[in-house]
Specification:
The structure is a single chain. The chain is an alpha/beta fold. It has four domains: 87 residues, Conserved hypothetical protein from pyrococcus furiosus pfu- 392566-001, ParB domain, CATH 3.90.1530.30; 59 residues, Arc Repressor Mutant, subunit A (Orthogonal Bundle); 66 residues, no CATH class; 48 residues, no CATH class. The protein is 51% helix and 12% strand. The protein has 14 helices and seven strands. A hairpin with a 2-residue loop joins strand 3 and strand 4. The protein is elongated and about 90 Å long.
């Protein structure tokens, strides 16, 4: 039996648009760019970002002076020769600091924007999309259409925390994103890797261990807990991840059942397996004799 091929992110954003969608709305930026005076553009009132770092804006303005605006803004007509920004407010602000009078922009009618938003919402709801592909669509809605995450969550019928967790997957190291897209790690594994965002070396080690040693999500989480607890030595970290030790193996032989360690942030617990109530009574009998 042939295996179902593992899917990556395909051809990017456009690969997420359904076949029956009007592709004329997705004309390339080069086909629809207009030069719009800065004074005719106004910020989108739905823009979730209210604060723009002044230092970063100055740096971007310097870059614009040297190279111009590489990525066009996106705007929609708002009447009387004015336009509302849909994407690119940061570039618009920096262009003003750089002394530009006009900026390149893709102008889309409100109908087009509504259809694009609807297409993206419908695609996020598709059952065949991977978590990473859902994250791509959600982030496009947020960044290019300035839709707040809580509004996206409401439209999708998901909890806001779920939407945030999906988007966080885009912050994974490239190797981890590829592993998630290929199905070599799960979303739970990916979240464990993200928890070590300040330690790229340990992130890479954890990814390698998940794939090469078949670590479960719980083992990956225990690895993270061990690292965050300050454990430095690799051997000791592995001790925290291991579900069995020489001591548990001796006890397993004595009780004639499997015993595992489940570590937590504060200590842990022993798990003793039993087949049925009779087997449980047999195991408890050992402790009565102690």
């Amino acid at each position: 039996m042939s295996e179902t091929p593992k899917r990556g992110l395909g051809r990017g954003f456009d690969a997420l648009i359904s076949d029956d969608f009007d592709k004329s709305l997705l004309l390339t930026a080069e086909d629809r760019i207009e030069k719009i005076p800065l004074k005719q553009l106004q910020p989108n009132p739905r823009q979730p970002r209210k604060h723009f770092d002044e230092t970063a804006l100055e740096q971007l303005a310097g870059s614009i002076k040297r190279h111009g605006i590489v990525q066009p803004l996106v705007a929609t007509p708002s009447g009387k020769g004015s336009y509302t920004l849909i994407a690119g407010e940061r570039r618009w602000r920096a262009a003003g600091l750089a002394g530009l009078q006009t900026v390149p922009a893709i102008v889309r009618e409100r109908r087009e924007l509504e259809q694009l938003e609807l297409a993206l919402i419908e695609n996020v709801q598709r059952v065949d999309l991977s978590p990473l592909e859902q994250a791509v669509s959600i982030e496009r809605l947020h960044e290019q259409f300035t839709v707040p995450y809580d509004e996206i969550a409401e439209r999708l019928g998901k909890a806001t925390s779920t939407v945030h967790n999906l988007v966080r997957l885009l912050r994974l190291p490239e190797a981890a994103r590829e592993a998630l897209a290929a199905g070599n790690i799960s979303e739970g594994h990916a979240r464990a890797i993200l928890a070590l965002k300040s330690d790229t070396e340990r992130q890479a080690y954890l990814l390698k261990s998940i794939i090469s040693q078949g670590w479960s999500v719980r083992q990956a989480e225990r690895f993270v807990l061990s690292v965050k607890a300050g454990t430095k030595e690799t051997k000791k970290v592995h001790e925290h991840v291991a579900t069995q030790t020489p001591a548990t193996k001796r006890l397993s032989r004595k009780l004639k059942t499997s015993i595992h360690i489940r570590r937590t942030a504060h200590g842990g617990k022993l798990e003793v397996n039993f087949r049925d109530d009779d087997d449980l009574q047999r195991i408890l009998g050992f402790f009565d004799q102690a």
